[in-house]
């Protein structure tokens, strides 16, 4: 079987869709499946092409046995709505034409962003192939929840129209958690059509280790209690509260690794406050992420307080747990319940600076508290093994291919019976 994947983000980018897609695809290749990924050049979140890539019309490479086709895209940082929309639209167009020329038995397209999924659906339609729709977040619901657009904005209404058509046309739909599945069912999508394949972690890449002395010394973190945030500094994350907490906790060091829509605003806030206990590090290569996590005593997962985000499961939770670092999560919904169930950290009220300060002080001052969370972290990481979920997603793709073949056979009219008289 040959799987054609259409996704706006892919390795070496470090956001959730890029990490998940590569982790799954390389395991599918190991299992004997051929995989081609159509994607853009690495540029997220700054909208700047990562060296040594260039934003060419088409370029090809191979990563971990996966054939990668990169197409030209109008690049924009992950912040300005209009420019970012043009970015999405351009990839939908160039990705579509590139995808028409790639081998495929089944097409998989991932959302967000929704226009990438539309491109995958059109490729499948033109080539008469089955397709699987991977829904990791509900667009345009998330856009509206984050006040990026109004509910009755014409573009939002267009996205809702596209979204509905995609749900109908897909042979199979896969979400990352039961909460998203239930919301799709509530909107009229048949439950039998929807599978669930959660995010996970590769224990070979993320494993417990002591703080790397050389790296800690580079950042001036030796002998300090360090609170970290590793990942995209996006609009869904409550990072301003972390800066305000840092103003009150001058004896604690804060390490932010990554970039995103809030990055420049956060840097200005820290500069205005004169905080010498706050350290920003731009995005680092994938193989350096574990050591940056290991620099921290506590890792934060701070989310904005919206109903839409209650079904969000940040993938960084699994990486932190695999490295047996305690999590402080400010959120609502399934992610909080998961951390609490495993005893892998402290759950606090989202967007509450006092609650955040209290949680950090507890982990700093209560001897043995962090160590008591290590078994829960190990259990959480074991429950969300990337190997297990990659195999489950491959089963979903095989099911989509089988269902697509059955549909195609039904569309072929039976030959007329002979009606001659004997």
Describe the structure.
The structure is a single chain. This protein has 422 residues and is an alpha/beta fold. It has helices at residues 16-30, 81-99, 114-127, 141-145, 154-169, 178-186, 213-218, 240-248, 263-273, 289-294, 316-322, 334-342, 353-365, 369-372, 374-383, 386-411; strands at residues 2-6, 34-40, 58-63, 66-71, 106-111, 131-135, 172-175, 194-196, 225-230, 252-257, 278-281, 298-302, 327-330, 345-348. The strands form two sheets. Strands 3-4-2-1-5-6-7-8 form an eight-stranded mixed sheet, with helices on both faces. Helix 2 packs parallel to helix 3, helix 3 crosses helix 5 (154-169) and helix 8 (240-248) crosses helix 13 (353-365). The protein is globular, with a radius of gyration of 23 Å. The protein starts with a strand and ends in an 11-residue tail after the last helix.
Our count of domains comes out at: 2
At the first level of CATH, the class of the largest domain is Alpha Beta
CATH superfamily of the largest domain: Glycogen Phosphorylase B
The coarse silhouette is: globular
Q: Percent helix among the residues?
A: 40-55%
Question: SS-based structural class?
Answer: alpha/beta
Care to count the β-strands?
A: 14
Which sequence of strands runs across the widest sheet?
3-4-2-1-5-6-7-8
Low-confidence segments: 414-422
Strand content: 15-25%
Q: What is the CATH architecture descriptor of the largest domain?
A: 3-Layer(aba) Sandwich
Using the CA coordinates, give the radius of gyration.
23 Å
């Amino acid at each position: 079987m040959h799987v054609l994947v259409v996704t706006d983000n892919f390795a070496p980018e470090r956001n959730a869709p890029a990490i998940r897609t590569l982790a799954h695809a390389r395991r599918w290749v190991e299992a004997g499946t051929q995989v081609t990924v159509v994607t853009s050049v690495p540029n997220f979140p700054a909208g700047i092409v990562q060296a040594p890539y260039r934003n060419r019309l088409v370029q090809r490479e191979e990563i971990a046995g996966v054939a990668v086709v990169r197409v030209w895209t109008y690049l924009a940082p992950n912040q300005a709505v209009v420019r970012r929309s043009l970015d999405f639209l351009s990839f939908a167009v160039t990705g579509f034409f590139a995808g028409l020329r790639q081998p495929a038995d089944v097409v998989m397209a991932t959302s967000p962003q929704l226009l990438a999924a539309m491109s995958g659906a059109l490729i499948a339609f033109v080539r008469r192939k089955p397709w699987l729709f991977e829904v990791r977040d509900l667009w345009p619901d998330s856009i509206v929840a984050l006040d990026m657009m109004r509910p009755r904005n014409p573009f939002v209404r267009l996205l809702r129209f596209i979204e509905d058509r995609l749900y109908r046309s897909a042979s199979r739909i896969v979400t990352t958690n039961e909460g998203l599945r239930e919301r799709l069912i509530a909107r009229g999508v048949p439950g039998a059509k929807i599978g669930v394949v959660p995010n996970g972690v590769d224990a070979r890449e993320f494993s417990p280790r002591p703080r790397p002395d050389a790296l800690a010394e580079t950042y001036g973190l030796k002998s300090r209690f360090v609170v970290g945030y590793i990942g995209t500094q996006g609009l869904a994350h409550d990072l301003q509260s972390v800066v305000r907490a840092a103003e009150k906790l001058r004896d604690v060091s804060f390490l932010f690794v990554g970039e995103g829509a809030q990055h420049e605003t956060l840097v200005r806030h820290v500069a205005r406050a004169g905080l010498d206990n706050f350290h920003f590090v731009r995005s680092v290569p994938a193989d350096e992420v574990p050591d940056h996590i290991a620099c921290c005593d506590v890792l934060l997962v701070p989310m904005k307080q919206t109903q839409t985000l209650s079904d969000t499961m940040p993938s960084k939770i699994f990486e932190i747990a695999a490295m047996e670092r305690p999590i402080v999560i400010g959120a609502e919904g399934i992610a909080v319940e998961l951390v609490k169930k495993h005893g892998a950290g402290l759950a606090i009220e989202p967007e509450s600076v006092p609650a955040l300060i209290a949680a950090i002080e507890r982990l700093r001052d209560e001897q043995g508290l962090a160590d008591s969370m290590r078994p829960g972290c190990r259990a959480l990481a074991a429950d969300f093994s990337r190997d297990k979920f990659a195999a489950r997603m491959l089963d979903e793709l095989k099911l989509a291919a089988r269902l697509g073949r059955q549909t195609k056979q039904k569309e072929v009219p039976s030959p007329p019976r002979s009606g001659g008289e004997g």
